[in-house]
Amino acid sequence: NAGVTQTPKFQVLKTGQSMTLQCAQDMNHNSMYWYRQDPGMGLRLIYYSASEGTTDKGEVPNGYNVSRLNKREFSLRLESAAPSQTSVYFCASSDRKDSKFNQPQHFGDGTRLSIL
Amino acid sequence: AQTVTQSQPEMSVQEAETVTLSCTYDTSESDYYLFWYKQPPSRQMILVIRQEAYKQQNATENRFSVNFQKAAKSFSLKISDSQLGDAAMYFCAYKGGNEKLTFGTGTRLTIIP
């Protein structure tokens, strides 16, 4: 059972470099999300996509862009990486039941990103 | 905006004992959902238990149960018969009438053999 797959698992970048984090889910979920996790701050929402073709900002969108390529894939791009973007990034997906947002989110294993 | 507060950064419990992790939240919505996630050292985020606000009965999943106090906006997690594999970060999370999930800052649980 693949679930939510993130690539890569680890990455080191230099300040100013660009990079795209990839995420794919095989559960036919409509909604997908990108979070960052920093020590002592829990998970914070960067961007989310409620359905194919739509994206919306979360709590901390600055410095990031996203693309919902199709129903399965949702990528996160850092155009010009900064040390403040050093973090662990999680992708997640979920669906609705009876038009309610009551379903849990399923998470990938995370990407540890270091910006030097 | 909704907020989720976990006031215990760290907790410890003897193996086989019971521990309760606290969570409070702030919302003006009447229909919402609450979750506890576990994050072991492997970094995976694993759903432990969930509660729908309109249900008065507290959710249970084997050794895990919640004490949901809607009026007090409290959602604590009780782990019975603690096992070494329960050692992890535990996050409380809130989802209201939209797609967004709001997390608390987490509680690190240590199991003492």
Per DSSP, the total helix count of chain B is 0
Compute the number of strand runs of chain B: 12
> What does the overall shape of chain A look like?
globular
The H-and-E topology of chain A, N to C, reads as EEEEEEEEEEE
Write the layout of secondary structure elements.
The complex is a heterodimer of chains A (about 120) and B (about 110).
Chain A lengths: L3 E4 L2 E4 L5 E7 L5 E7 L5 E7 L6 E2 L7 E4 L5 E5 L8 E8 L11 E2 L3 E5 L1
Parallel strand pairs in A: 2-11
Antiparallel strand pairs in A: 1-3, 3-8, 4-5, 4-9, 5-6, 7-8, 9-10, 9-11
Chain B lengths: L2 E3 L4 E5 L4 E3 L2 E3 L6 E7 L6 E7 L7 E2 L2 E6 L4 E6 L8 E8 L5 E3 L3 E6 L1
Parallel strand pairs in B: 2-12
Antiparallel strand pairs in B: 1-4, 3-9, 5-6, 5-10, 7-8, 8-9, 10-11, 10-12
Plain-language structure description:
The complex is a heterodimer of chains A (116) and B (113). With 116 residues, chain A is mainly beta. Chain A has strands at 4-7, 10-13, 19-25, 31-37, 43-49, 56-57, 65-68, 74-78, 87-94, 106-107, 111-115. In chain A, strands 2, 4, 5, 6, 9, 10 and 11 form a 7-stranded mixed β-sheet that branches. In chain A, strand 4 (31-37) and strand 5 form a beta hairpin. Chain B has a single domain, classed as Immunoglobulin-like. Chain B has strands at residues 3-5, 10-14, 19-21, 24-26, 33-39, 46-52, 60-61, 64-69, 74-79, 88-95, 101-103, 107-112. In chain B, a hairpin with a 5-residue loop joins strand 10 and strand 11 (101-103). Chain B is globular and about 40 Å long. The termini of chain B are far apart. The interface between A and B is medium-sized, with 24 and 23 residues.
